[in-house]
Design a protein that fits this description.
The chain has 264 residues and is α+β, with helices and mostly antiparallel strands. The chain has helices spanning 2-33, 81-104, 156-165, 181-207, 234-237; strands spanning 42-53, 57-67, 71-72, 112-114, 118-126, 135-150, 170-177, 210-225, 228-229, 231-232, 245-246, 250-263. The protein is built from 5 helices and 12 strands. Strands 2, 3, 4, 5, 6, 7 and 9 form a 7-stranded antiparallel β-sheet that branches.
Length: 264
């Protein structure tokens, strides 16, 4: 009885396997017998657009610092706590005076950012006599950065004068920018798409075909936005005239690749 049962199971398995093989062969034969669909005929173009926008705001970065007295450097040299406290007090006073001066020039408090305090050693190499090795001195520098957002560019010269009079220790430059970057980049992308459509329509008209639906759209490069650093006239750089701060223009590039179906 066990041998008969085993034989029946083997026979059933063989029949199922034969059926599956037959179905696969039939499906493959049907797929080979069906005609292949023709590929969609298309016109694909690439287009670039460049727009220039006049800046309407600027960011200005400056720094204030104070230093402790210079002392000889040794392995056990440590900053004098009293000297550090006095230097920090002077720095905070100068920072407060600078902020009040800028507010008097019309800057709002939320347009002025006074960064956090940083403390670092500042090494000075000095040679006392020619025959002696150079001596290394050390002092501690306490520094605070100040960042200004200027939305009225006509006030920029007055603000720079105020910074100079306030005795800022470093002016890291002015960067011109746009208040609404998204609007500018959208405009560049829109112009790139319009150029692509114009090129495709020109090609289709010249070749006597008709454009169908859009098949694919891709950015070849996203709109590139680069703020512009401050420029000055050559005369002003040479000190022959009053400084003229020229914002120039900001250039934004965009690129696209678009494919259209060709109607039969």
């Amino acid at each position: 009885m066990k041998l008969v049962s085993h034989s029946r199971r083997a026979l059933a398995g063989s029949l199922i396997l034969a059926s599956l093989l037959g179905w696969a062969t039939t499906a493959q034969a049907q797929a080979q017998s069906q005609p292949r669909m023709p590929e969609t005929q298309r016109i694909q173009v690439q287009a670039q657009a460049e727009i220039k926008a006049e800046p309407d705001m600027a960011t200005l970065n400056a720094r204030l610092w104070e230093r402790t007295p210079t002392i000889a450097r040794t392995e056990s040299t440590q900053a004098d706590p009293q000297a550090l406290a006095e230097a920090r007090k002077r720095l905070e006073q100068r920072t407060g005076e600078l902020i009040r001066t800028l507010e008097q020039e019309g800057l709002k408090s939320n347009a002025i950012t006074a960064g956090s305090l940083s403390v670092r050693p500042d090494y000075v190499h000095r040679q006392v006599k020619k025959d002696e090795p150079p001596q290394t001195l050390v002092r501690t520098q306490l520094e605070r950065p100040v960042s200004l957002r200027i939305e009225d560019l006509e006030r920029l010269p007055a603000i720079l004068d105020a910074l100079t009079k306030a005795g800022v220790d470093a002016l890291d430059g002015v960067t011109y920018d746009l208040k609404d970057r998204d609007a500018a980049t959208d405009k560049a992308l829109t112009q790139a798409l319009e150029k692509a459509r114009h090129k495709a329509q020109l090609m289709a008209s010249t070749l006597g075909v008709e454009l169908g639906q859009v098949l694919n759209i891709q950015e070849t490069n996203a709109p590139i936005f680069a703020p512009r650093m401050m420029a000055m006239s050559a005369e002003a750089k040479q000190g022959d005239a009053t400084p003229e701060y020229r914002s120039g223009e900001i250039t934004i590039d965009a690129g696209v690749s678009v494919a259209w179906e060709i109607k039969n």
